[in-house]
């Protein structure tokens, strides 16, 4: 008996008016895998993420997480079922402190009600304390705990990226989607990021799907890669196979010109 | 521990303020004009703080707050004048019905963003006003006579509850959820926050307290008329919040006090009143575009000092 994949995307796609942004998307991710999604600019990678997280409702096909259909769920419902994400252009809660950014993502794990908070009942204090402890634990892993009271917008770029990942983890995902986590990082920072991703994957028993342009990172840590171009999957496989796949090379570099021309 | 200490400090301070004013009123040192001004200031603080929750915390730009004030005013007036029930019940009923109106208005309109929401809420407030204008049972355009029942005690209790509830709400996971919507709605949604729910909750709580303020307001002026609840009233409340600094509760309180005092004492100069009032607004916005307090609270000032002193 084969185990049910964590995520199944079956023939999913979305159309904006007459434009098919993504179509016929088939992705299967097993528990514990680290999978890459690559493709040239405008290929539909982020759109695919938006489909998976409920930002867009697919106009065709279906998306299943542990067999449960996610089509038409609001983003917060998808998150509560176990998919959380980071964004290509950082979307932190800028005016909130680093700690509060993580606490917000902890929100749906806590139980205390509005009434208990307003009346300051014991459940409010215990709930808030638990949120704070959990959040601090996470920040320590990301070495951001010394900056916990700093306002998020004041952090340097690399730390903002790290905080975004920490926040995504606080939502307690089974599947973590990273949208270009290394964008704008120098090689040293990218290297640290690779280690960090490998570490949190072990530590939190995560399955990860990441979009990335940095081929060193993708080839270095992904076990499997999907390649998108013009809204369609053009290849799927191990990093070595993808590297040598003529279709992929064509998508990235253009068609090969015959040598004798 | 610190948080609890803060609450007791707040409670003690409140009792001192209340007690002092009450003693001064009883001793006849504060005449009717001053005690009325104090009540009016408190009502405006309640309004400012309730709108602060919607605009400053949740970031939903609603400019129809006078509509909920009107609901609270009329409902409470009906409860005391027509049903002859006690005043506290009237205040509560005004608040509850206003909260209900907030739900009815909020559920469809809070899908809208930015200026669209502003226009929709403004429209709803006008609808509420015109409904009261056309009900003869509450006097139509001529207005409704109301006995004066609002006292400093009632007003202060309501003010205290408003500030306590909204502070406690804001400083909890629920308040953080609302702030995250203000900061970045897409990210809040992606982090598992039910954004629609929290927008509606904040709106309903805001409307509830606006309704409470309405009850106090109605029983302070002998008569209520629909014209008192036009969009200019909504803008007055909006100005308290913006001038105080979006996101700062103490800012809203301070600017409500300041502007009410300015506008009360300018009543002696009706020709220049609006000019001076407007100049105050223009000057503040020129020199403090972030509002009087920015996003900070008055308590932050003390915190910073104590941190410095301690280290």
TrEMBL record, chain A:
InterPro entries: AAA+_ATPase (IPR003593), ABC_AA/LPS_Transport (IPR051120), ABC_transporter-like_ATP-bd (IPR003439), BCA_ABC_TP_C (IPR032823), P-loop_NTPase (IPR027417)
Stretches assigned to the ABC transporter domain: 7-255
GO biological process: D-alanine transmembrane transport; L-alanine transport; L-isoleucine import across plasma membrane; L-valine import across plasma membrane
SUPFAM superfamilies: P-loop containing nucleoside triphosphate hydrolases
Single GO MF annotation: ATP binding
UniProt keyword list: ATP-binding, Nucleotide-binding, Transport
Name of the protein in its database record: ABC transporter ATP-binding protein
UniProtKB/TrEMBL annotation, chain B:
CDD domains: TM_PBP1_LivM_like
Record field: transmembrane: 7-27, 33-55, 62-81, 87-107, 114-132, 152-170, 197-217, 237-262, 274-290
Source species of the chain: Cytobacillus horneckiae
Entry's Gene Ontology cellular component terms: plasma membrane
Protein's membrane topology: Multi-pass membrane protein
Designated name of the protein: Branched-chain amino acid ABC transporter permease
Predominant cellular place of this UniProt entry's protein: membrane
A family per Pfam: BPD_transp_2
InterPro entries noted in UniProt: ABC_transp_permease, LivM-like
Alphabetized UniProt keyword annotations: Cell membrane, Membrane, Transmembrane, Transmembrane helix
Subcellular location: Cell membrane
Gene Ontology MF term list: branched-chain amino acid transmembrane transporter activity
């Amino acid at each position: 008996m084969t185990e049910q994949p964590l995520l199944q995307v079956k023939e999913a796609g979305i159309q904006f008016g007459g434009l098919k942004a993504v179509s016929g998307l088939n992705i299967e991710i097993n528990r514990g895998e680290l999978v890459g999604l690559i493709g040239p600019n405008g290929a539909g990678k982020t759109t695919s993420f938006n489909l998976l997280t409920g930002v867009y409702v697919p106009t065709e096909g279906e998306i299943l997480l542990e067999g449960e259909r996610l089509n038409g769920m609001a983003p917060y419902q998808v998150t509560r079922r176990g998919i959380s994400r980071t964004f290509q252009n950082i979307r932190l809660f800028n005016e909130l402190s680093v700690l509060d950014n993580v606490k917000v993502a902890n929100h749906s794990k806590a139980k205390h009600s509005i009434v208990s908070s307003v009346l300051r009942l014991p459940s409010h204090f215990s709930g808030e304390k638990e949120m704070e402890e959990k959040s601090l634990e996470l920040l320590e892993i990301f070495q951001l705990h010394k900056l916990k009271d700093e306002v998020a917008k004041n952090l340097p770029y690399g730390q903002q990226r790290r905080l975004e990942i920490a926040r995504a983890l606080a939502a307690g995902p089974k599947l973590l989607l990273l949208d270009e986590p290394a964008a704008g990082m120098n090689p040293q920072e990218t290297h640290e990021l690779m280690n960090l991703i490998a570490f949190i994957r072990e530590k939190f028993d995560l399955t990860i799907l990441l979009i990335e342009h940095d081929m060193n990172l993708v080839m270095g840590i992904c076990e499997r890669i999907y390649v998108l171009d013009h809204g369609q999957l053009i290849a799927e496989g191990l990093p070595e196979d993808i590297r040598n796949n003529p279709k992929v090379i064509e998508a990235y570099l253009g068609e090969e010109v015959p040598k004798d021309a | 521990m610190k948080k609890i200490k803060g609450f007791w400090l707040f409670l003690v301070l409140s009792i001192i303020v209340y007690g002092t004013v009450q003693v001064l009123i009883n001793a006849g040192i504060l005449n009717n004009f001053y005690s009325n001004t104090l009540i009016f200031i408190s009502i405006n603080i309640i309004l400012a703080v309730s709108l602060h929750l919607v605009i400053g915390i949740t970031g939903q730009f609603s400019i129809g707050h006078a509509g909920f004030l009107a609901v609270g005013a009329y409902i409470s007036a009906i409860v005391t004048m027509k049903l002859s029930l006690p005043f506290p019940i009237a205040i509560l009923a005004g608040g509850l019905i206003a909260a209900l109106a907030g739900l009815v208005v909020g559920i469809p309109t809070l899908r809208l963003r930015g200026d669209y929401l502003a226009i929709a809420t403004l429209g709803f407030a006008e609808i509420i006003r015109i409904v009261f204008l056309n009900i003869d049972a509450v006097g139509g355009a001529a207005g409704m006579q109301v006995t004066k029942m609002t006292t400093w005690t009632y007003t202060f209790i309501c003010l205290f509850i408003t500030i306590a509830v909204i502070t406690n709400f804001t400083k909890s996971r629920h308040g953080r959820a609302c702030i995250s919507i203000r900061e970045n709605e897409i990210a809040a949604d992606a982090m598992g926050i039910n954004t629609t729910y929290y927008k509606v909750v904040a709106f309903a709580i805001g409307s509830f307290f606006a309704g409470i303020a309405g009850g106090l307001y109605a029983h302070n002026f002998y008569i209520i008329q629909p014209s008192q609840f036009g969009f200019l009233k909504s803008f007055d409340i909006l100005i308290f919040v913006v001038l105080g600094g979006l996101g700062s509760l103490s800012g809203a309180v301070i600017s409500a006090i300041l502007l009410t005092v300015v506008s009360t004492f300018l009543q002696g100069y009706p020709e220049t009143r609006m000019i001076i009032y407007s100049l105050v607004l223009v000057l503040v916005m020129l020199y403090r575009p972030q509002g009087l307090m920015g996003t900070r609270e008055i308590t932050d000032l003390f915190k910073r000092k104590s941190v410095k002193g301690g280290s």
